[in-house]
Write a structure and sequence with these properties.
Helices cover about 80% and strands about 0% of the residues. By secondary structure, the protein is mostly helical. The longest helix has 27 residues.
């Protein structure tokens, strides 16, 4: 399994899922309309498809590992798009999650 390919697919999945959820949020909570909601739903569907492109055949493993990417990616999205300012505990938590991703995806298995 290529580490670079795995990471790239996780990043693409995060952009699709987090971006999709953000678009739905904007459409509903910020009253930006049905076009935002529709684009969000499409992006969320794309996220589901991107996850199937991972080389590992175990759905549970891929989704569990992606959970850590989602945590870190959500904080990064908040910083980049919404002006969120994480505190040190947000960073520590994201680092713990990313360490978990590395263990789940990349430790040698017998």
């Amino acid at each position: 399994m290529s580490i670079a390919r795995t990471v790239a697919l996780f990043v693409l999945a995060a952009v699709a899922e987090i971006g999709g959820a953000w678009l739905v949020w904007q459409g509903v909570r910020e009253h930006r309309g049905v076009a935002f909601i529709g684009a969000g739903v499409a992006a969320l569907g794309a996220y589901g498809f991107v996850a199937t492109l991972q080389e590992d055949n175990h759905f549970g493993r891929i989704l569990a590992a992606y959970g850590g990417i989602f945590v870190a990616g959500s904080l990064a999205w908040g910083v980049a798009v919404d002006g969120f300012r994480p505190d040190r505990w947000d960073y520590v938590g994201a680092a713990v999650c990313l360490a978990g991703v590395a263990v789940i995806m990349f430790v040698p298995r017998g």
